[in-house]
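Blinded run. Sample ID left blank on purpose so nobody reads anything into the name before looking at the predicted structure. Input follows.
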Amino acid sequence: MPVYIHLSNLVFTKSDIEQHYKGGLEAFRERFFWKDCNNQEDNEIFAIAAMNPDELPVDELKENVRRKETLIIAENAPFSKKDLLKQKKYRWSDGQGTLPKAWWTTLTNDELQTELDWLDTEIYGFSGAANALPKIEITARQRYSLRALSLE
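Blinded prediction complete.
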């Protein structure tokens, strides 16, 4: 099923526009904003009211939609390793929602084995420990849904 994105719903960082749009931010504003528009811009992002679809990173969007990820839960990780987990962008679940009380992260399936090896050596201290951890494969249909954060 094709994914259609209305152009007025796109949001880009200003740095992406500076880097990828010929002429930078000022040229972008001149082309895509009305002169009488009193658009208040955030320092980080702004919405696009009109844009040529040929200039959109559609291939990148399609690739990201098809990308599968895995949510991995580092159950029973030693408290002394919490700073290492934070550095690797793990988040803490307090057990109030659908995840158990544990550190968790999502990563692409390409990164999964490397992460499991890291957990074995740096967090649990023995080989194979991470293979027993709960893992949930996340598809595009679940990615921005609470279903992605459920062990059911």
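Unblinding after everyone has recorded impressions. The chain has five helices and six strands.
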